Amino acid sequence: MESVLLSGAATLLGEARRVVVFTGAGISAESGVPTFRDDLTGLWARFDAQRLATLEAFHSDPDLVWGWYEWRRARVRRARPNPGHVATAAIESLVPDSMVITQNVDDLHERAGSRAPVHLHGSLFAPRCIAEAAHPAPFPGTADDEAADPGEGRRLPPPRCTRCGALVRPGVVWFGEALPEAALASAVKAAAACDVLLTVGTAGVVYPAAEIPRIAADSGATVIQVNPEPTPLDMICATNLRGPAAQILPALVA
Ligand code: BJW
């Protein structure tokens, strides 16, 4: 990558007063957490999203879905934040008016020191009762439990809610489900008000999350992208830094 692009982006970031860092699965790739859409290693290259990441799938085969998410949760527990997560937390320290908005369901931003990342697609660590209207909060007792790792492709029966006996489901946002209202509202507000939005490691194809960088661009912010591959967001970005997040983000804050 041309160092002039990198130093120009670092200058823009250094001069910004309000920064949003918008992240996707690519930022956790170098921690060993698989992305979704990368050709050979992406989860959707190996697993059927319709059978695993929809409410219908959970209703029809809860043990398959719960087992798959427990396997993923165990993988994330074993992973460690990488220099990209650490640099993101450093941006938050350098720019007090900043926000990390992530589509990721892992907790690597938190473990790297980010203050309160906004999770647009929920969390692997906040399972909840499927009778959501009755129990909207994370399921008590499961959030911090040591996960049993059932192994790849193994079934595991989900626990039952201790209050009503209904099944407990993963606390993530599946296809066709609404994003958490407060998280989406604060993300939209921050995107519309920032000077610089850094979009990192996302294919930018899942909506409404993919609107976030577009809202920033439409509101006059400079959008900088970090991704080894081109994405549909290229055209709204002032700078496209092609490369892995764990190398480029530390160089941006050095
Ligand atoms: C690196 C790197 C390195 C690699 N460094 N980079 C047609 C048009 C528009 C919308 C729709 C449509 N048809 C259906 C929809 C709606 C649908 C949608 O967007 N579908 C599209 C796929 C077409 N959206 C929804 O269903 C959403 N809900 C909704 O619309 O609700 C409406 C509603 C309103 C009111 C009431 C009820 C309903 C919900 C979307 C939920 C997404 N869920 C998932 C799974 C979460 C749980 C789980 O983890 O299992 O979220 S899908 C998956 O995609 C996950 C991710 O957060 C999300 C985004 O993926 P991301 O992060 O971009 O990852 P990848 O793998 O795609 O890309 C990785 C990138 O990293 C690549 O670019 C690499 O190059 C790069 N990379 N290594 C930096 N080292």
Automatic annotation (TrEMBL):
Record family assignment: Belongs to the sirtuin family. Class III subfamily.
Organism lineage string: Bacteria, Bacillati, Actinomycetota, Actinomycetes, Micromonosporales
Cofactors that this protein relies on: Zn(2+)
Amino-acid positions noted as binding Zn(2+) in the UniProt annotation, renumbered to this chain: 129, 161
HAMAP family assigned to the protein according to its UniProt record, in alphabetical order: Sirtuin_ClassIII
Record keyword Cytoplasm present: yes
Binding positions for NAD(+) per the UniProt entry: 103-106, 227-229, 245
GN (gene name): cobB
Cofactor mode of binding and number, as noted: Binds 1 zinc ion per subunit.
Top-level EC class as recorded in UniProt: transferase
Domain notes: 2 residues (Tyr-69 and Arg-72) present in a large hydrophobic pocket are probably involved in substrate specificity. They are important for desuccinylation activity, but dispensable for deacetylation activity.
PANTHER family in the record: NAD-DEPENDENT PROTEIN DEACYLASE SIRTUIN-5, MITOCHONDRIAL-RELATED
Start and end residues of each stretch annotated as Disordered: 136-156
Domain of life: Bacteria
Protein name per the record: NAD-dependent protein deacylase
Active site: 121 (proton acceptor)
Binding site for substrate: 69, 72
EC number: 2.3.1.286
